[in-house]
Give the backbone structure.
Amino acid sequence: MTSALPAGAGTTTHPRAARLAAHGFGWRPRGRKAPVLADVDLAIEAGERVLVLGASGSGKSTLLQAFAGVLGGDDDGDRTGNITVDGRDPADARGRVGLLLQDPEAGIVLERAGDDLAFGPENLGVPVAEIAKRLDGALDRVGLDIAADRRTPELSGGQQQRLALAGVLALEPGALLLDEPTAQLDPAGVGEIVDAVIAAVERRGLTLVVIEHRVDVWLPHIDRVIVLDRGRVIADGDPASVLEREGEALAERGVWVPGRPPVHPPAAVTAPARERTVLLEATGLAAGPAGAEPVVENIDLTVRAGEVIALTGPNGAGKSTLALALAGLLPRAAGTVTTADGVDPATVSSVELSRLVGVVFQNPEHQFVAATVRDELALGAGEVPAALLDRLGLARRGGTSPYRLSGGEKRRLSVATAIAAGPPVLILDEPTFGQDRRTWAELAALIAEHRDRGGAVIMATHDRELIAALGARELRLPARPPRLTPDEAGEPVAAGGPSAGPVSRPPLLERLNPVAALAAGLFPALILVATIDIVSAAVALALQLLLLPLLGVDARTLVRRTAPVWIAAPLSGLTILLYGQTSGQIYAEFLFVRISDGSIELAIATVLRVLAIGIPAVALFARVDVTRFGDALAQTLRLPARFVLGAVAALRMLGLLGSDMRMLERARRARGLGDRGRIRRLPGLVLALLVLAIRRGAALAVAMEARGFGAPVARTWTRPSPWRGIDSLALAVAVAVAVIATVAAVATGQWNSILTGREFG
Amino acid sequence: MTAPTTPKSAARGVGRLRWRVVDIVVASVVGVAVGLVFFAWNLTYNPIGSALGALLPGVQGSVHGVWLIGGVLTALIVRKPGAAIYGEMVAATVSALFGNEWGPLTLLSGLVQGLGAEIVFALLLYKAWGVVAAMLAGAGAGVGMVILDLVLWYAGAGALFATVYAISGIASGAIIAGLLSWLAMRALARTGALDRFAAGRERGDDDEDDDEPLTGASAVDDEHAATR
């Protein structure tokens, strides 16, 4: 898969390519005073390849979303003029336009690669056989050598972005719209996605519209440049002449124009006396995620005042891990880290740490802790001088929520807050990732200032230009062989351990329709709860324990999964023992407690009952595959597909939000707030997590809608979710158990209705 | 600030109650995030809480309001019919998938608790989203929780326990799930995260720099300050 004919060679009109046009188009989101786009008139002919340039906030993304038909309706904003795809309203041309977004995580919807590819065509109601044809070789064509059942969270950012591209191409669109597709990728990932895009465009003769801050990435492949400024088209033409005319102004506004390097900070001033001071020293350092093998090992590093260290190396080499371990935010597997005062940053209090080491996280939103920009800065520095806000270009933004800043402003603020408390050491994780040229220059200047004040800087980065601009010393981490996940090692995730033979059938639990398993877990409970007595609970529990081995899950796994029930049952029993209905002899009495014959009996019944209700339910639902569960809810139970799939897509984000949560905790420790009690920290953490969740959700919604989600057509399903005889049987057996238990209670005269049994005063 | 949006929203009738894709996905993700918080809460609260709680005459209900946040918060954010049930169900699903002592019965709890909040929002015709409505909905969720718990888990409990549990559970729903969710919704609106939702547009207290992303960095601001 090598890239690309020279620019212009592919522009012959192709019957499949889509024509995009806007006539006096404008868009003002609800709640905003100024329109994001105004009076946009342009036509992009079928097969053209266009690069759209402009400062951040110039309306580029909105334009792409308008062509993709995902801007929303009257609820979302006011529209003027019109916009068309092949002469039709974009909403009526679903599937003609494919949209790929910046964040690879937001572009993927389902847990497994193959399922995710099918998502778009399924939404558009493409017949299953046709989908299978489309997907044959789809991963290969974007240069992905992975199995169709590969779990998407295990892929690197670059791989995820190519998978997302394949998912968009599966719509068989006539135009491909890319919104900064390389901004969050490392250099290797950038090349791969460009190659994959150009190959697809060549093969299908697609119309291509790309937004990117870095012009050089796409310049060889495009034949037209459109420049937007504050929602209006200000230049439009062939790349050479537009860049010649607008290049300087664009560079000024932050676009990376070839031949116009950013302003570099002045080189380091000659060594002051302090420069020899060692500010941070690591020996024999090894670190990795908790409970896993170390990712980096045998690191020896001495960082002196006035020095900049760049941690480099390919993706997955452990740059971020090392940076966080040096900052005392990740546990070390081996080795030592000491600061100038001889303390270990991993052991000091959070407040002390914030004075020793300033940390800039990859995502600035992980480290915001205050309601306003001014309060963010005040956290470390106390009084915030107006000059500092000015210096950051945030003079008018002091009272704004930090989350409301633009991407570049957030990044600058995060660096400023990290150095606000005046720590000697500044540690940054990919500070310039995805930043425009202006922000880049401002960041380089901020970091250089810290260096020239006699501070030390350690930064994990891919950015060669930054390394050169700051005169950084490079510590190159070697590539690591890709980690073998349990998946790849051959163990299916839902498997219950060693089974009888190598070719045995999968255990019953995995063959059941997930809805059948759920119903078999829940229905008996609904029958059993009618009575509270020992006989029914004991009979049900005994029968269930006899039947559970049939599920094909080995005993040890079963005990481990149901452990919470075994703990909860005696606790519930204890409550009833103390506060249950009293009858017969009373053995003890104090305050509200009354232990009697009655409460003892009810307590025993409660323990058995909680076990009888909880164990089968947990055993049948444990480790349910979310995608299969969703398929079954929508196909078997006929729940609304939009809601089921929305929930399934959101559940895929669970892992992501979990790592957000851990990162938020680390950031709070780095910022000096980690000493507070857990309960006091929780509200701030929850709020930050919700902000991240909603942002991720909003981006995911755009990506899903661009892949036809919510289209008013009957959806198809590539994964059928049949209800078989075995499902009916499992459900019948489960209900029978409950019925037998109830009959036993009635027959022995033990039936004790929960409604009549209780005296409510 | 709110002036440009008010005249139109009155005429918005049915459209106001229609679920957009962004409503569905954000409601789902909020549900998942709340489920994750449940999990963190479990780790914090359970080891001591449930052992200690077992000894109490029903006042353990006063912390159970935490379980009811999912429905109220989701409804306050997306403001669509069914949002309370849906949000609570998604959060419950996450809880069940992580593995807790209730397993899929958590889904049943989620349904009943969400329904309690949903009924309140429905009785208010999906028009009231203030702090009172939020607390009533939280209390409604509390009613659902209390009924189900007394039937399912505390069926043998005496009248005293049942009464104490009911009062503390409902009050906890109103305060933890109602008041705290409302405060969280307001705080979220201030961050700009809710700008695509009615919840994010009703604040009138923010500074005037809302359209900032239009101009990005500051020097551009100054340059074009006059034209704005």
Confidence is low (pLDDT under 50) at residues 1-14, 484-502 of chain A.
